[in-house]
Amino acid sequence: MSSFFRKRGVIVALVVTAAVIILAAIAHFGGSNPVSTVLRTVFSPFQNGMAYIVNKVDGTVDFILEMKSYKEENERLVAEINELKKQNRDITNYHEENERLKELLEMQTNLDAYSTVAASVIAYSSNNSYDTIQISKGTLAGVKEGNAVITPDGVVGKVIEAGPTWSVVSTILNPDNALGVKVSRTGDVAVVEGDSELYSQNYCKMSFIDKGSNLIVGDILETSGSGGIYPAGLSVGAIRDVNSDSMGNLNYATVEPLVDFDKLYEVLVINGVVY
Hints:
Strand order of the largest sheet: 1-2-5-4-3-12
Shape: elongated
CATH class of the largest domain: Mainly Beta
CATH architecture of the largest domain: Beta Barrel
Strand content: 25-35%
Radius of gyration: 41 Å
CATH topology of the largest domain: Thrombin, subunit H
Order of helices and strands: HHEEEEEEEEEEEE
Number of strands: 12
Distance between the termini: 105 Å
């Protein structure tokens, strides 16, 4: 079978070579002499076919070259678009960071009765929740255990461990954490604490509620000032759900912190009262 194809290849090559020679002869004789006329008549269809093939080949080559050019141009445009998207994201991030820092500075100014220091959130707890976080300031900046940690949105938690340049904060989601609160609307007092079943959902529990309290969903809670850690009047959270027993007595309420722990980047540590 392979020898058959080789023979056909030789024949095709000979035919093409003969055609080239004949075409050259036509070009050589030129004019309108009998030999030229006969050759032109006999091989005119062949010439037309060759011209058609050559034109098609040229067109195909041009198309391939154009497609390659289009592909390169498309890749360049895609790269430019991706770079512009990145620049736009960077600008948006810078703007958001600038707004957060302005709010933090304004809060720091309003708490002029306290010594405060701003810090960045650098790590979260290893269990993929927000019951503890690590911040970028420590004892060298005056931070010590028991200091309150807040943001313009509300209370974050308290420092439970402090190193020279870092601190660990137990957030209000932590089951080991509790703070005294007051309902802004009614003045009723209670305790907000972390709960082992709710903290994975970023919720807290409000307990020790007075039986006569008239709580409604959406009520805002603020620090009561009891306990000596958190100054009074700091936002804590909003009541999401109220749980009562069969007699109508309040058992507990589910609280959603006003701090968005999914987007917590900077905090303010209250180091103490300025004397």
